[in-house]
Every structure is written in C-alpha cells, then in structure tokens.
Amino acid sequence: MNLLKYLPVIENFPKPGISFRDISPLLANADAFKSAIEALEKLSREFQYTHILGVESRGFVFGAALARTAHKGLLLARKPNKLPLASHTESYGLEYGNDALQIQSHIIEHGAKILVVDDVLATGGTLVAASKLVRTTGATLSGAVTLAHIEALNGKKLLNSSGIPFRSLLSL
C-alpha cells in the first residue's frame, strides 16, 4: 500500500515556511493505518526492547498501536505539566520554536529497554530529547522509529551523531 498518498502536505503550517505532513488521512483510513502499524512492527523487530516510549502527541497514536501489536509496555513522553509525578525534563529546539518533554521514571522497570516512537523525524530535536530522557532514567535506549523522516531537514544526521539507532518506514 502506498502510504504516502495518505500523508498530504499542508503548506505554511503551523508557521509560514513550514511544510507540515498531515497524518490525519492515514489514521482515518483503517486499511492504511493497519498497514502502517504492521510495517512499523516489522521494522521495530530490528531492535530489542521491552517498552515503547510514545512522544507527545502523534507519537502516542503510533506508539500505542505498536505497543499493542508488539505486546510491549507503553510509556509517555509528554509536554510540561501534563504528567503527575514527572521526574525528568528535557528541553529541545524545533524547526519552528522550542519545547520540552517530561517523563515519569518511577514506572520504568529496572532493566527496561526502550524504543522511542514518533510520527515524523524532522530536525531530530524531539527524538534526541526523548532519548536523553530515557538515558536519564537509567533505562537502556534501544533506538527510535518513526513513520517517516524528512530527509532535507537532516534529523537523521543529528540522531547518528547522538548515538541513536534509527529506522523510518518512509522517506519524504
């Protein structure tokens, strides 16, 4: 199935000059969503992991579906002040601003191996921040997977230089 036809580009969103890939049509089509999750599950087999860390917010969708399919636990990396008992915070830059993620370390099992999941790799800041959070908790970072990555923004280079094993289903 050609998943790219379910990922239209929305120009100048959320700011002028940004080309945003909308995942809503993919999620709305049951066959496309199922196909994407099945392909991500196959891709994730390259990593040994016990838990998935879904990154707010679209990473929650793919992370939850992948965790269910792969029969793994799901952890959440959320924006500030959204988690009770958040114990670690990591700030990062985006192609259109700055943000931060938080995680609850008390629910991460000793010896956990974490696979970070998000929808799209752009500049890499979000996945690097999520990976730093994992490492801060003492868990092992297994790697990161996304539905797609935008090659022109060189996020993959940042992940490589940060020592983050990475795989993506689609290149944009």
Gist of the model:
With 172 residues, the chain is an alpha/beta fold.
List the helices and strands and how they pair.
Layout: E1 9-11, E2 19-21, H1 24-28, H2 30-44, E3 51-55, H3 58-70, E4 73-77, E5 88-94, E6 97-103, E7 113-121, H4 125-137, E8 140-149, H5 155-161, E9 166-171
Parallel strand pairs: 3-4, 3-7, 7-8, 8-9
Antiparallel strand pairs: 1-2, 5-6
Characterization of this structure:
The chain is an alpha/beta fold and 172 residues long. It has a single domain (47-171), classed as Rossmann fold. The protein has helices at residues 24-28, 30-44, 58-70, 125-137, 155-161, and strands at residues 9-11, 19-21, 51-55, 73-77, 88-94, 97-103, 113-121, 140-149, 166-171. The strands form three sheets. A five-stranded parallel β-sheet has the order 4-3-7-8-9, sandwiched between helices. It has a two-stranded antiparallel sheet with strand order 1-2. Strands 5-6 form a two-stranded antiparallel sheet. Helix 2 (30-44) packs across helix 3. The two termini are 16 Å apart.
